[in-house]
Amino acid sequence: MAIAKAERLMNLALCLLGTGRPLSKRELRGSIEAYLEAGSDDSFNRMFERDKDDLRELGLVIATVENLDGEVGYLARRDSNRLPPVTLDAEEAAALGLAAKVWQQARLAGAASGALQKLRAAGLPEDVDPYEAHSALEPRIPAHEASFEPLMLACRDRRPVVFDYRKATAARPEQRHVEPWALECWRGHWYLAGWDRDRGAERVFRLSRITGKVRSRAGRFTVDVPDVVTVRETVASWAGETADRTALIRLRTGSGYPLRAKASAVRDLGDGWDELEIPYGHGLDAWLVEFGPDVVVLEPAELRAEVVDRLRAVAKG
């Protein structure tokens, strides 16, 4: 059945591309063997409409033209279905090659590799790859979360979604109604930026904290998508990356290596504890809570209070 349909679509595409004038359904039925074998007019009409929609989905531009007698005809004009010459400089070609390698661990691998092959067939040089000399380094952006693909499609199609989300400080997930804008990878984790309808504000969600299935919802976005969505900058801000102060914490020896990497000073206190000075910015309290009993905030007092409040909220469930 799959082969028969592929042949039928190819024959229909060739008929529409090869004609110099619009062809009616009657003429197309008489030209394509599969349509001649259709049992009835209704069966043919359903088959033809599905095939026409499938070709349009594949990118073929099919024009519908009505003649003086009111009969509808179809054709695919070559000028409407011809791509301009592919002209890429070395840096652009390298970026495409890198992108194809990056997506090998996601479902986009087939599409990326197929697109690259088509570009090479259209004249993209085979040897344009400045990364070839460093082939020991293989770029990867893993996308293991089950929510990645439905959210990627929702961002593309501008479809609202619903999912259950567990914050770092919450014992149980909450349902979120979101208008998804963009996905971006930052420091090995995927994040979704979008409009949170329940809170009436822009929010960023870490995909690894989405539980259950992502469900699409009907309707349009209620808020315009910004021209520039600063996912990384937003996440960095919430993670305390844009720090303008210093915090003093105690950290259990042998733990909290991400905190140690950020520390501007480390002092051994003995008894299995170290004292660290770390940058303090918005969202640091949420990050410190993730280290549980291995971290004690010494100062400032406001940061200590924020961490204590978060720990109490988790304890209450």
Radius of gyration: 28 Å
Main sheet overview:
5 strands, antiparallel
Silhouette: elongated
Q: Note the gap between the termini.
A: 55 Å
Topology order in helix (H) and strand (E) letters: HEHHHEEHHHEEEEEHEHEEHEH
Number of strands: 12
Question: Helical region count?
Answer: 11
What portion of residues is helical?
Answer: 25-40%
Stretches where pLDDT is under 50 for at least 5 consecutive residues are 130-137
Written account of the structure:
The chain has 317 residues and is an alpha+beta fold. It has eleven helices and twelve strands. The chain has helices at 2-18, 25-31, 33-36, 41-57, 90-102, 109-121, 148-157, 231-238, 257-262, 284-289, 301-316; strands spanning 23-24, 63-66, 72-75, 161-165, 174-186, 189-196, 201-206, 210-216, 245-252, 265-270, 273-280, 295-299. A hairpin with a 2-residue loop joins strand 10 (265-270) and strand 11. Helix 1 crosses helix 4 (41-57) and helix 5 (90-102) runs antiparallel to helix 6 (109-121). Residues 130-137 have low confidence and may be disordered.
